[in-house]
Amino acid sequence: MKTLCSLSECSQRRYHYININKTWTEAQRYCRENYTDLATVNNINDMNELKKTVNNNQKVWIGLKRTDVYKWKWSLGDPVKYLNWETEPSNDTNNCAVMRNGTWLQQGCNVNMSLICYNGASKDLIICQAQTLILSCDEGTLQILSANYGRIDAQTCSTGRPHEQLLKERCSQNRSLTVATLCDGQKSCSLVVSDAVFTNPCPAYYKYLTVSYECVAAPPNSSKAYITDPYKTWREAQSFCRQYHTDLISVRNQTDNQLIHNIINDTETSVWIGLFRDSWEWSDNTDSAFRYWSSGEPGHFGGSEDCTEVRMNDQVQWYDARCSNSNTFVCHENELVLIQKNLSWTEAVRYCRENHVDLVSVDSEKIQLWVTAAVHEASTAEVWLGLHYYCLMNLWIWVRGEVVCYQNWAPGVQIQLKDCSGEHRAGAVQSGGDHMWISLPRSHKLNFICTTNKELCHCLSLSVM
Q: Are 390 and 425 in contact (CB under 8 A)?
């Protein structure tokens, strides 16, 4: 399983609060005419940005609307390309999925089941008592940097626990040696967080383990962690995983499926995975599966509540509502725009400057992730970037004169050109695969990406005379 900063964690949208009351359809039209669309929300970070943008207690429209078509989606937002149903799913109301003995079954979402959380880019984990922790490295081996067991505050791992189990503070003890003995030098390791493993630093209190680790002799993002926990409904499991880890687990291929089957290690146990089914779609057709419904929502009262409003109170949760209601609303504006026209590199530069700001300069991993999301709908195998080779100085520079301070070249690409007598070359990103950069003659006709934000580039500029 390849672990990257999630695309949804690196949102390339800017939110704009419109303090005018309109119906959902009127708000959608306004956003499309003046920005990109009604707001799409990809994750809890987006929710926090939305709250800061609105900064009042209004009800606001976002772009989520009910349709007639139910689709299966991953809670984490991954595309659903791999399925492993024991039997083909029916059209009943069992809209969540479990894994049992390596295959998937439909299940009602309100049943209490075990769960598996996925922890992505973070290498600092919190695992509550009685949960199982699985650490793994795609490459290299594990090295435990620190581990502490106990309790140092009353909030962490407090959900559903009686108050008297949370009162004790500052009773944590260093257990780095215990975890290191089990995990150091291994490709993967697992342990149950319990007094039996770590001894009991504060009897009668509910505790948790904090672990910091890394994968030694490995490239970045090669680490991953899984946390199992017993008995929650699907919605409770999703909320728990998002609060303490990344999300419920996605199963993206047969390798993932076998790994999770091995983690469960019980042919009779059913475990929640992050797959769910609903009929809600975003106005901009984004695949985001993030939902933040209030308890009991969506209720579909009277069969006519088909749009989504966010109530900007302390909880900032979502409610379905009649689309004919009148609310203020939030639009979003994309930082990057994929243009599905086939133009040469020079023509693409001209188009972006006339219609937006410029061809995109990719000066960081964050913007590379934005580009990766943008090229998803490209109709050409490569997509132009604002990168070109400046022969007089024998180096690659961005179209606005910035030096290349972040690179993502594909293996084997000839970066230094010994002969500049041929056709000038420019940089493009692969629209499939690992989305790496390649060098092509500027005359090739490709899709391209424009930026809409003049402040997007941060690299040092190079004056080119």
A: no
For residue 241, give every residue at least 6 positions away whose Cβ sits within 8 Å of its Cβ, in sequence order, or none: 75, 115, 117, 118, 227, 247, 248
Mean pLDDT of 232-244: 86
For residue 104, pLDDT beyond 80 = yes
pLDDT at 1 over 50: no
Q: 363, 70 in Cβ contact below 8 A?
A: no
Kindly list the distances between the CA atom of residue 393 and the CA atoms of 184, 349, 353, 418, in Å, as whole numbers in the listed order.
48, 21, 25, 12
Question: How far apart are alpha carbons 193 and 128 in whole angstroms?
Answer: 7
Whole-prediction pTM: 0.64
Residue among 71, 29, 64 at smallest CA distance from 317: 64
**DSSP of 406-420, one letter per residue?**
S--BPTT---S-S--
Give domain 1-117+233-334's CATH architecture.
Roll (3.10)
Structure confidence at residue 149 (pLDDT): 92
Two domains, one topology: 1-117+233-334 and 337-451 = yes
Q: Is the pLDDT of residue 50 over 70?
A: yes
CA angle 387, 411, 336 (to 5 degrees): 35
| In the chain, where the domains are located | 1-117+233-334, 122-220, 337-451
- 143-158 confidence digits (pLDDT tens): 888 889 998 888 888 8
- Find the length of the chain: 465
Which class is 337-451 in CATH? alpha beta
DSSP secondary structure, 147-180, as one string: EEEE-S-SSTT-TT--GGGS---S--EE-HHHHH
Cα-Cα-Cα-Cα dihedral of 152, 154, 160, 163, to 10°? 120
Sole residue written with tokens 């704009």: 16
CB 448 within 8 A of CB 384: yes
Query: Cα(310)–Cα(292) distance, rounded to whole angstroms?
Result: 9
| Average pLDDT for 327-333 | 94
What is the CATH topology of the domain spanning 122-220? Jelly Rolls (2.60.120)
Residue 148: phi and psi, rounded to 5, are -135, 140
The average confidence (pLDDT) of the chain is 84
Q: Which residues contact 404 (CB under 8 A, 6 or more apart)?
A: 387, 395, 396, 397, 398, 459
Block residue for tokens 């689709």: 71
- Residue 210's DSSP bridge partners are 126, 148
According to DSSP H, which parts of 270-393 are helical? 345-355, 365-374
What's residue 289's pLDDT? 82
Q: Which residues are within 8 A (CB) of 255 and not within 5 positions of it... i.e. 6 or more apart? A: 1
